[in-house]
Amino acid sequence: MRNNAEGSGQAVYDCLAELALNDQGGLCAYCELDVSRQLNTFRVDHFVAKSLSNPQANWGLDWGNMLGCCKGGENKYVTVPNHYEKPRLANLSCDAHVNRLVQKGGSKLQLDDRRGAVINPLEMPIFPNLFQFDTDRGELQPHPQRCAAVTIEDNHYATTFELVDHTIRVFNLNCPRLCTARKDRFDELEDMLED
């Protein structure tokens, strides 16, 4: 769509990205960074790869398969001031990290069709929160008790805990860049509460 030089492909893509951005409240579907102010830090990710489209499912045009996400540390534009570092493998997250896993020889089929291998943000239960937050390190971790209380449909793993843990690892949600941003935001909120 973006490469359609003859038609209005880029304009349509920009419109889709803006709609996804609005639907998600300006947050990346995976790491939840605020990308509402800069459309150039945002892209549309297909949870199930477009290449897996077939007569029963057109994954390229299925709105429920399109997720707005940040560029995962690949670009020089950031929504968190003073947190940009040159794109390093350790700091890639979200779909940028998934793409890197494929390049490194990860299971392409599992990464192309993520259903059951990671949690789809659109299908994650609101309550209870399956993640816990380490305020000292800024890390996300699966919450053992809450994960034990929830069954996720089509889970490829024995437990919800394993699925949540795998989701964190596949999207690299504990990369240094994101942990620092979370910790700083938490500290800001604590300061505001004290004031």
Low-pLDDT ranges = none
Biggest sheet, open or closed, and with what strands and sense? Answer: 2 strands, antiparallel
Total helix count?
Answer: 6
H-E string: HEEHHEEHHH
Mean pLDDT: 86
Give the total of beta strands: 4
Share of helix among residues?
25-40%
Work out the count of structural domains: 1
Overall radius of gyration = 17 Å
Can you tell me the overall shape? Answer: globular
Strand order of the largest sheet: 1-2
Task: Estimate the strand proportion.
Answer: 5-15%
SSE-based structural type: alpha+beta
Protein architecture, described:
- This protein is of the alpha+beta class.
- The protein has one domain (9-194).
- 33% of the residues lie in helices and 9% in strands.
- It contains 6 helices and 4 strands.
- The chain has helices at 9-23, 94-103, 108-112, 144-148, 160-170, 176-194; strands at residues 42-46, 66-70, 131-134, 139-142.
- The strands form 2 sheets. The chain has a two-stranded antiparallel sheet.
- A hairpin with a 4-residue loop joins strand 3 (131-134) and strand 4.
- The protein is globular and about 55 Å long.
Output the keywords:
195 residues; alpha+beta; two-stranded antiparallel sheet; 4 strands
SSE blueprint and pairings:
Elements: H1 9-23, E1 42-46, E2 66-70, H2 94-103, H3 108-112, E3 131-134, E4 139-142, H4 144-148, H5 160-170, H6 176-194
Antiparallel strand pairs: 1-2, 3-4
Please give a quick description of this structure:
This protein is of the alpha+beta class and 195 residues long.
